């Protein structure tokens, strides 16, 4: 490697929520940043979550008061800083006396309401279920409390956009295959996973934010022993036709002390999950098994009038949570907190590794990680993300943004306008500007997905495949037919093959 190879202050490995969050934070402090992700942004754990911004009510049972307090504080900030992809969600917890006594639930909800300040969400209360309840008739009492919903994959993309807007270089489909320390720098070899092309670069600091691969990256890329081993836990979800008509979510207790969420999804589905199963193997190959599907169906059928079976499942997915490896025990009790490991021998380039973490606390993790690295960069600016609005979030409420968009583009169908508000916020002006009628959006690929939006996603949000667009950027994967998906993929391939102007 020569001194002509590009030099960065920080190179981040991993394009999940923690990696993009760190890239955004570091770039905003004036550091030169490059991020490489071997697949698409949010292609693993960060897009396979329960899609919640929450404090973690059940973590109180494991005495993780510090984690819950941090998460509740971050929940408020995220609802404020990304009002397009995050919004409040009311949860109903049916009471089953043989599982947890009412006094215990009341105590937990009291702590949940008071461990951190909350301005955006109402507090908890007791409720009664009447004859019109979607629950089984014997379930008559319960509790209600607030948390938040998040479009997890778009959160990652918006963090990458914020990093890019501040000068960071974002490289998807790029794997770091070699990293060595030499003369006070990291010397790295990156490989495009599509073309096989390799490139060399150097960095003053290296961040390992590889999620489930954070431990194995040491042996595979750096030929170093990992300072920590992760406990990989599989969490699986199923999607079924809507179980109830209301906007509320449900949190269901089970005899094994686990809880499962039933969440409204895309207006006509219920998202059910998650499981907690220890996992060994390649995180890229994780998949839900029949036992997990049966487990989720059985639990739901014990609560809801509307019964479901595996035949009702229209979509299923699994993700691998990289949790801190403690003293063993049940997977559901493993901590969701994070640890930052700094390896900085004297006169050598520093390495910062991220182990563990959860979606809700990604900003706090990124702030701590960049703060740790800043000691090696005296020129770095101060912490800044506390009130940083994510791209597209510069509006007051979704209702007011929808009204403004309707005035600018009165020809937009209501369903499309609603999706643009909750996916892009004000970013949708980038591809709507200049359009005066629906036909101006170009070719229709199905379910109101048009060429203008697709072109924007390719040119500005690093989308290269139909899956990138349908499952991570727009959540339209369930809506397009096979022939429509193929037509979209052919368009993407043709666009990428076309010579640049």
UniProtKB/TrEMBL annotation:
GO terms for cellular component: glycerol-3-phosphate dehydrogenase (FAD) complex. GO terms for molecular function: glycerol-3-phosphate dehydrogenase (quinone) activity. It holds the Pfam family DAO. It is an enzyme of class 1 (oxidoreductase). Residues 385-489 form the Alpha-glycerophosphate oxidase C-terminal domain. Residues 9-326 form the FAD dependent oxidoreductase domain. GO terms for biological process: glycerol-3-phosphate catabolic process. Its EC number is 1.1.5.3. Gene3D superfamilies: 6.10.250.1890, Alpha-glycerophosphate oxidase, cap domain, D-Amino Acid Oxidase, subunit A, domain 2, FAD/NAD(P)-binding domain. It catalyses: a quinone + sn-glycerol 3-phosphate = dihydroxyacetone phosphate + a quinol. PROSITE patterns: FAD_G3PDH_1 (PS00977), FAD_G3PDH_2 (PS00978). Its cofactor is FAD. Keywords: FAD, Flavoprotein, Oxidoreductase. Belongs to the FAD-dependent glycerol-3-phosphate dehydrogenase family. This is Glycerol-3-phosphate dehydrogenase. It comes from Oceanisphaera arctica.
């Amino acid at each position: 490697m020569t001194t002509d190879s590009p030099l960065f202050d920080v190179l981040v490995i991993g394009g999940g929520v923690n990696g993009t969050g760190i890239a955004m934070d570091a770039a905003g402090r004036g550091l030169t940043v490059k991020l490489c992700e071997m697949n698409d942004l949010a292609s693993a754990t960060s897009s396979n979550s329960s899609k919640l911004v929450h404090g973690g009510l059940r973590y109180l049972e494991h005495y993780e008061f510090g984690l819950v307090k941090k998460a509740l504080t971050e929940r408020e900030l995220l609802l404020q800083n990304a009002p397009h992809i995050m919004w409040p969600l009311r949860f109903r917890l049916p009471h089953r006396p043989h599982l947890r006594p009412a006094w215990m639930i009341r105590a937990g909800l009291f702590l949940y309401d008071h461990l951190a300040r909350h301005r955006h969400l109402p507090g908890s209360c007791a409720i009664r279920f009447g004859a019109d309840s979607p629950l089984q008739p014997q379930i008559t009492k319960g509790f209600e409390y607030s948390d938040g919903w998040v479009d997890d994959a778009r959160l990652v993309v918006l963090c990458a956009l914020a990093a890019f807007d501040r000068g960071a270089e974002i490289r998807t489909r790029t794997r770091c295959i070699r990293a060595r320390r030499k003369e006070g720098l990291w010397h790295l070899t990156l490989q495009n996973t599509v073309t096989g092309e390799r490139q060399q670069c150097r960095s003053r600091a290296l961040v390992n934010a590889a999620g489930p691969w954070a431990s194995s990256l040491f042996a595979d890329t750096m030929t170093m022993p990992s300072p920590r081993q992760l406990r990989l836990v599989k969490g699986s979800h199923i999607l079924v036709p809507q179980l109830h008509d209301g906007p509320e979510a449900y949190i269901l207790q089970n005899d094994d002390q686990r809880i499962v969420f039933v969440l409204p999804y895309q207006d006509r589905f219920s998202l059910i999950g998650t499981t907690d199963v220890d996992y060994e193997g390649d995180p890229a190959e994780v998949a839900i098994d029949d036992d997990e599907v049966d487990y989720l169906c059985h639990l739901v059928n014990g609560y809801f009038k509307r019964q479901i079976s595996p035949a009702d499942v229209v979509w299923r997915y699994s993700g691998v949570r990289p949790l801190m490896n403690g003293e063993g025990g049940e997977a559901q009790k493993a901590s969701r907190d994070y640890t930052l490991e700094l390896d900085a021998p004297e006169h050598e380039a520093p390495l910062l590794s991220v182990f563990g973490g959860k979606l809700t606390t990604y900003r706090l993790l990124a702030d701590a990680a960049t703060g740790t690295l800043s000691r090696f960069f005296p020129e770095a600016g101060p912490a800044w993300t506390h009130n940083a609005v994510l791209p597209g979030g510069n509006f007051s409420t979704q209702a007011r943004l929808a009204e403004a968009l309707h005035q600018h583009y009165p020809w937009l169908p209501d369903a499309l306008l609603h999706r643009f508000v909750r996916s892009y916020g004000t970013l949708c002006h980038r591809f709507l500007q200049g359009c005066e009628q629906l036909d101006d959006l170009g070719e229709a690929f199905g379910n109101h997905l048009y060429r203008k939006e697709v072109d924007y996603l390719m040119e500005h949000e690093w989308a290269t495949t139909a899956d990138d667009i349908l499952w991570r950027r727009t959540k339209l994967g369930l809506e397009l037919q096979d022939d429509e998906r193929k037509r979209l993929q052919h368009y993407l391939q043709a666009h990428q093959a076309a010579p640049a102007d």
